[in-house]
Here is the input.
Amino acid sequence: MLHPSYADLMNVVNKDVAEDEAPIVTSRYSIVMASAKRARQIVSGDEALAGSEDEKPLSIAIDEINEGKVRILPNTEE
Here is the structure.
């Protein structure tokens, strides 16, 4: 299965950010880290929100991000 590009995933994550606000994701590294974290959550037993049971956890995580079913929260100092 073909997955979306990093640029496409960044656009999906940043689509709801206002013009005067900083984007949530600014690099491919952030997308990789977020999808890896979500894949680990799926492996640990969290319910998959997209994809099928025969897909690998990382593929499911990427599908979830691309479909907007999970959100990446900005890193805050608090």
The longest helix spans residues 28-43. The chain has a mean pLDDT of 87. Residues 6-16+26-66 form one domain. The chain is about 45% helix and 0% strand.
